[in-house]
Amino acid sequence: MARLKLGGGWETISGPRLGGAHGSVDDAASYSIKGQFSGATVFVTGASGYIGSVVLEQLLRTTDVGAVYLLMRARRGTDPQDRVKQLLGSSLFHLVRDRPSVVAKVKAVQGDIQQPGLGLSAADRNRLSRTVNFIVHCAADIRLEPSIQETLQANFEGSRSVLELAASCAHLRSLVHVSSCFVNVNRPRSSVVAEQLYPLKFGEQVVDAEDVAHELMSLPSGDADMRATVYMKRWRFPNTYTLGKHLTEHLVAKYQSRLQLPVAIVRPSLVSAIAGAPFPGYAGNWAGCIGAGAAMAIGLFDCLGSVASHPLGVWDIVPADLVGSAIIASAAAVASGAAAAISRATGSGLSYRGGRASGGGSAVPHALTHEQRGGGSAVAGSTATAACGGGGGAGGGGSGGAAGGRWLRSGKVYFPGGCASISEDTAMSGSRGSCFASDGSASDAGDASPRGLGLGGSPAALPGRVGSAGAAAAAAAAAAAAAAGGGGRVLLIVHAATSSTYPLTLMEGWNYNLEFFAAHPPPFSITPGCLPRMTDAFTPHDGRVMACRTWTGWKVWLICSLLRMFGKQREAHKLEVGFDTFCVHNNSKTDRDLTFSTRALVELEARLAPAERRDFLLVWRPMPEGCSEAVRAGALAAVGGDMCWRRYCHTQMAGIYRMLYHASPPAVAPMRYAVGGGGLPADLARAAADAAEAVASGDARAKKQLPASLVNHVVCHDFVCIR
């Protein structure tokens, strides 16, 4: 009988290296996005949201995908397929919406991530299980401060439903869970956050994330919020969103290890406007830096004292098209098998252990089983292990299967020394073995400990709280495949971020936006006059921030009252919601100045087929690596000799201007790159500058003649409103 490989196949990294330009790349571990997605069937959640829609557009435009199923709710009497038509008719899809053969690939599946089993009908679930090759899970409740049960229901339980669907897919090649860089916002200020899992602890005891979520979901709503506040204070999470997403990542890691699912976690930072194709400046929602730019435009920042963050703190914003490319590339890398090489090279996906990444002997950083003190029973092995007749640990310390004990249904079993979460078809074994804490030590974990205790010389396997015979069968099949292949699958974690490749500070972003407002004064602002430039001498002060917020709140109330008097209820509601969102985001508790490591992202870029790199921009840099002299000259022409961030921020503000005022700002003549500068031939530099001017003027023919890498790698100052 097959037995699930304990430890999830993670390997100990003795000396991680940075790939790409900084290390060698094994050609055998390269991958092709277009090759992996050709003819494939993809299931996407959250496609009506910003990130999900960008992923969908890129799939349709850059790959020959076979079919794409979108999880859609029936909203306000609108049929899900009609919502898909509305989505594909938006300006984001202007390059593909007039191609019937492409549009026909997209089909709606009615469901909801907040419903059990995603709210799928039996027929839809069966169809997805038989046909889906890739799952991209983008759906989430992105509100920062909902009640803890609301965020867990959508993000934690919704992800569980996606994972269970993935376990039932007969031809699954990869699942990408879209998370956030800020799941680890609780790291010490100015830390470098690795592409790894960070455990939660009570003192030295590692905490089971699923137990925390289960507790919070089981309490009355008011008690759950109070308990969540205690956890947020203890673990330094600024809001329920980041706590819930952190817990969710560990749920994903548990399922990946237990069922050997092909999984990648992609963590975007602050997702901003699109930098390149399908057109620069497109912004799909008001979250993050897009909302901050809008707040500056309409006057919610009424003075420098209203800013809650430090000027030299890292402002890690990332263009949305880079995020979409990172998600698609991660899916392809996992499907091709390149993820294992990326993990070996970078340490991505391992468990963080206070300065070292643990692998090999440690399954995941969470305790999931507990041994009874005083010579009683122990939960032995995972759901799959028990179902396949293997109840003990890797060392064989326990007898497994039905013969080793009695079968129990899903639920909690309480022992004198703690409680064990068990799933359907999990066996209780009467054997005992050595106790191992989840950090790999053999020390006693203490009474009622949340640390994982294993049997027979190996850390414990990972039983799921919710299981099924289908999941057990999937685990058995995965274990057999892993054994045949000589090892288990890795969990790939990728940061889609810019702070470690081309960092931007808050001060720079603020001042670049002011430059845009100087050229294009907003037609409406609740604060007259111009905001001052920010310098590194500025120091935020919570008292001043609160005073400014109170004064601005009175202005918002007065303006909303006047708007309602004139029948502008919708505009008044938008302004009120915008102010409330501004108050949540502009807060010193989220000012952590974190740098997010992108070693796996750089390795993804290095291993991608060279012919595809121009279509999938992954790493944000001042200049594309390995580009031709013509492209380099064009890039310099497009940014006018300035840093890319300045040009990008101006372009993003143009997109925000369009969203706010439903009009495009007048086109600005691009700054010409100095002819002959930088050691380039004068004729080449002049031709590149002329091409950049043609792009900025909206000359569609000239734009089509430009190298694709110029359009995709460089933000062109193109303010043409595409409808």
From TrEMBL:
Q: Which residue intervals define the domain Thioester reductase (TE) in the entry?
A: 44-326
Q: Name one Pfam family in it.
A: NAD_binding_4
Could you state a single Gene Ontology molecular function term?
Answer: alcohol-forming long-chain fatty acyl-CoA reductase activity
Domain of life of the source: Eukaryota
| GO biological process annotation, one example | long-chain fatty-acyl-CoA metabolic process
**What general EC class does the enzyme of this chain belong to?**
oxidoreductase
Reaction catalyzed? a long-chain fatty acyl-CoA + 2 NADPH + 2 H(+) = a long-chain primary fatty alcohol + 2 NADP(+) + CoA
SUPFAM superfamilies per record: NAD(P)-binding Rossmann-fold domains (SSF51735)
Keyword hit for Membrane:
no
Provide the E.C. number(s) assigned to this enzyme.
1.2.1.84
Provide the alphabetized UniProt keywords: Lipid biosynthesis, Lipid metabolism, NADP, Oxidoreductase
Q: What does this protein do?
A: Catalyzes the reduction of fatty acyl-CoA to fatty alcohols.
Q: Which family does it belong to?
A: Belongs to the fatty acyl-CoA reductase family.
Its name, as the record gives it, is: Fatty acyl-CoA reductase
UniProt organism field: Raphidocelis subcapitata
